[in-house]
Specification:
alpha/beta; single chain; seven-stranded mixed sheet; elongated; 342 residues; six-stranded parallel sheet; Rossmann fold
């Protein structure tokens, strides 16, 4: 038995394909459930795993643990002992899980990190292209305001690498337009309260702005503009059903980026493919999807027009994120199948 496990580990470490017999036993290790996206991610993964052609190929078990590297490392060790052939990891740390991942790989387990990925060289990684997001959103905003005007920018969560990545990407685009000036900023912290507070403070001192680049919620931006009696301006944000409804009701011009909740499902299918003998790229960047009020603007990526019943629903929760999967994914879900019910 030890020789078989050693041979398996050597083959994986060397990048060789290793076909195994289905059905496979796969686990998803998740370290955080504190936002709508993670809950929807799990719902989508479970729904996809329960449909053909994947249903007959593997079983999926989801394990939630505390949001610490210690707790998730213990969870991974436990899953290895339970005989899982692949573990999907939404990581609590990019590097602190590496010793546990080492142990899993040496035991012949396939490790796929997704969303918040690890930096382990032998783990597969699946994540959204967060370089593309600010380029497309900032280009949309710049064109929507005719290349001139005073802009407010959301810096996101202080110290978070993705926040800086989004802010730097947007600033680089706006710098190409001499008529655009970034006049104020705030730390939205990916939360409604700080976003509203930051915008209210800016509106108190800035009687007129042309656009808002935000990394999270657009609903609070719309409320701040409304409360200040300011006309709606073009703005960016991420995909929350309630925010899109607010934009529809306020007739606001928005571009929304979608970090698909189906990343866990993509990791699940990738694990099945690897266990069947495939050898996909170690690092896979997923194209973000974009929803927009004006889909005719050439922002450098396809834009899906915002419409009720298509990508926004009155009956869905505020935090619902749609679409959940790429259109070419072999399993598709309806909005009702993806929504998290309490």
């Amino acid at each position: 038995m030890k020789r078989i496990l050693l041979l398996t580990a050597i083959l994986i470490l060397c990048g060789a394909s290793l076909a195994m017999a289905a059905p496979f036993k796969i686990a998803l290790s998740n370290s955080f459930m504190g936002n709508d996206w993670r809950q929807e991610m799990e719902k989508v993964a479970q729904a996809v795993a329960g449909k053909e052609p994947l249903k007959s190929q593997a079983t999926l078990t989801i394990i939630n643990c505390d949001n610490t590297p210690e707790a998730q490392s213990d969870s991974i060790d436990s899953l290895v002992k339970q005989g899982y052939q692949a573990i999907l990891v939404d990581a609590s740390s990019p590097s602190a899980l590496n010793p546990a991942i080492d142990r899993a790989i040496k035991a012949g387990v396939v490790i796929i990190s997704f969303d918040q990925v690890v930096d382990h060289a032998q783990a597969w990684k699946i994540e959204t292209d967060f370089d593309k997001v600010p380029k497309v959103q900032a280009t949309y905003i710049a064109k929507a305001i005719g290349g001139k005007g005073d802009i407010v920018i959301d810096r996101g969560l202080p110290g978070a690498p993705i926040s800086k990545q989004l802010e730097d990407g947007a600033r680089a685009v706006f710098a190409q337009y001499p008529g655009i000036k970034i006049v104020a900023g705030f730390d939205g912290q990916y939360a409604q309260g700080p976003t509203l507070q930051g915008m209210n403070s800016i509106m108190a001192s800035r009687p007129k702005i042309a656009a808002v680049f935000t990394q999270g919620y657009t609903g609070p931006v719309i409320k701040a503009l409304t409360d200040a009696g300011h006309p709606m301006v073009p703005m960016s944000g991420f995909d929350y059903n309630g925010d899109i409804l607010a934009a529809i009701d306020a007739k606001a011009n928005v571009i929304i980026a979608n970090n698909i909740p189906g990343l866990g499902a993509l990791a699940y299918k990738t694990a099945i493919d690897i266990l069947k003998g495939a050898n996909p790229p170690k690092h896979m960047l997923i194209d973000p999807l974009f929803l927009a009020t004006d889909s005719s603007i050439n922002a450098g990526a396809p834009l899906e027009k915002i419409a009720l019943g298509v990508n926004a629903w009155r009956e869905m929760p505020y935090g619902f994120d749609w679409p959940v999967l790429p259109k070419d994914f072999p399993v598709q879900l309806t909005a009702k199948e993806a929504v998290v019910t309490q």
